[in-house]
């Protein structure tokens, strides 16, 4: 065993002798200490000081400036993709290492698309984070921002004690971009977080899929009462925005094409109910809305006007006291500011988002920008709040990449070196129209610039084709475009996949 | 809201008025009561009796006989595929609704293949279970067998109280096939079940993948010590059989091709160690074994001879006291009888498997068969135990389908109606050779009939090509063949996927 022990010894010793990296604990720690005022009283003390915090120290004048991006959604990823890594080091902090192609997420719940096809690794969006010595991706949550010190606080995401206790660290930034997104609104209704499933992340779609297939299989078990069978197979969607409507449409497609074939024993018990307090698809043209209502009803989705009062484990209760038993409950009633955004002592826009000016800067905070669903124009700009849409986030990310690259080229990349006179054109949002699929090769496309404006709106197969093509060309990498096309093709030929894995 | 309440009312009432199905609780319950002697003292009591048990009653003479299959592995699925559903109703009981294509499972851990590509839904293998009125798949575990009453006891698999409490039911069979597989051997070593991951199911592969990617990302976080980084990135595989070797090979491929490109910051810290008490690939030809050892060592896998004594959360301890810190521990030291098999009071083969005769019948148990890893020839047959291999299970499933179809055609399908004189040829196993991939487009193919026999054995690219082709044509459905080919192609073109979803 001597050779093995020596191997183990080598592996334990070698890294200590390795070339010091930018991670080198001691040097970084010292820099941070001097920076954050947490220095030991005896810096010359030869004994090791217990390490509480570590991190990335501020960049020095000769080094590339560092852009820190919080979040990996549409806004953050589009920004990373556009940043010139010759000018900047890029550091991304997010609890997930991929971007989710949210408009296609509903399709993954029923097996039309694979989960992998709608997730794009950040390392593919911006390869520098895995190659450049000063660029990183950190699987962590931001826990606080010290804007006066140009510093963000982070804590690692872990999977329990077997791996590692959560680890805190700080990152000094030259430019900070907050792209933290939003979180689902529950309106304080009791039981939503416990019993309903949202539809924002891949793990949500996985949970919906597992539960749907489990309920289908459980309802086949002998001895189960008819009432319980109907409950298990009652899929309730709360919220009639595009997400809720698209999910209802996918679900009714799945029932019509796959449940009828693969679960013939229980096919007459499965039902979909869509509950909405107002009108479904309220941002769409009247005609489109009527069309969607007709199509959804035709494909078996029950549309119900109601306000949810309480959610319990197996039923929800409406405002008028009606009890609705469910087996699967999906919640998609829109989004609002996350708890971190709420806790930040930053200027806010109406609605509680982080306030930004026309150049997407957070006013009075030097070198801080905010984009995507977490941000909104401050009142002084006189601009309306932009909707929490992927296309807004994507356009803001693109604009900011351009702006930061311009600043970098003008040698304004480093912290507190930026001359605001060089700003250039402000960000202007032009709405390109809304799209939503309603199942069965049908979709709505609304190309009006706003709810009041005149313009083209259409519905049906042609829109569905436009919808699919538009999304296919927007999925970021060729690899995922290829996979999405292959998924659609196999679903068409072989039907949806029903393995519960 | 009146229309909604009426909708709810309709949905609650309608099923009760629906045509009575074979699941009808009352009739089934009564049949089972008379069968199992659990009848109430007052069967004429008009008050409802609390339902404890329900299930599928015995088939009647005019009905199709019912084959109950416990398990959905290679043996059970091959049998289901081959059964003539004109002759039999098929009922499968298993905690998973898909078959896992185990030889390709190692490839899914590192993203070479998608999880979906190696899982085949049972409803695709035998469509009758979702179409025929008397055929079913039940997502449940078998909890006991009453062979004298031709009855199996089952309990549903659930995902916690939100869905349904576990539900018990009984199924009467005409023919019972036990294909429960085996469970990983831990040799009573403390901590294996808690800290190590096996590699037998898709959820194991998902866990390995999530942990591997998490450790790669955590080790990039600033402030982590070099020692901790080395631990996190130390992947230890215990067991040098084909599974352990294939996983080590895949892992070293992943490190060479993808970690070096996508995790450049930590690429020098990641290492793979394969621990085996004896020789790796002990069933293979000497020359092949030497070749495998050379290739694995060349690709950076450390081969260690040792016996694991104890497993703790972040390190394992060998017999000689050596401590081996690990970030990921995969356990593949072979399989043994499951606890249900141990608990059955059936004749056993040497090694504790369910004893079978040459026709795969369980001796002295009428209408009961056992196939796959859970079964072994009883001593009186004078035949050696067959290895726990997919090809054995697959061949047994095929043979038994043929035998049962023959019995069914001779009107021996119903319980206790079978004339043993009609048995025909006994099952004979002919070993077709062993294959194992060792990464980097290299594989071993050993076409000898046994360890002692002479025959063709080869290693290298040609074998790898044979290995891939052989598996590709064996993946059961065209859909999965297509997906596996597409996965291999995209891995070649775009590299492996690294989203942690």
Automatic annotation (TrEMBL), chains A, B:
GO terms for molecular function: NADH dehydrogenase (quinone) (non-electrogenic) activity. It holds the Pfam family NDH2_C. It is an enzyme of class 1 (oxidoreductase). PANTHER family: NADH DEHYDROGENASE (PTHR43706), NADH DEHYDROGENASE-RELATED (PTHR43706:SF13). This is NADH:ubiquinone reductase (non-electrogenic). Belongs to the NADH dehydrogenase family. Residues 36-58 are annotated as: Disordered. Keywords: FAD, Flavoprotein, Membrane, Mitochondrion, Mitochondrion inner membrane, NAD, NADP, Oxidoreductase, Peroxisome, Transit peptide. Its cofactor is FAD. Residues 66-397 form the FAD/NAD(P)-binding domain. GO terms for cellular component: mitochondrial inner membrane; peroxisome. It is a peripheral membrane protein. The lineage of its organism: Eukaryota, Viridiplantae, Streptophyta, Embryophyta, Tracheophyta. It catalyses: a quinone + NADH + H(+) = a quinol + NAD(+); a ubiquinone + NADH + H(+) = a ubiquinol + NAD(+). Its EC number is 1.6.5.9. Residues 431-497 form the External alternative NADH-ubiquinone oxidoreductase-like C-terminal domain. InterPro entries: FAD/NAD-binding_dom, NDH-2, NDH2-like_C. Its main location: mitochondrion. It is found in: Mitochondrion inner membrane; Peroxisome.
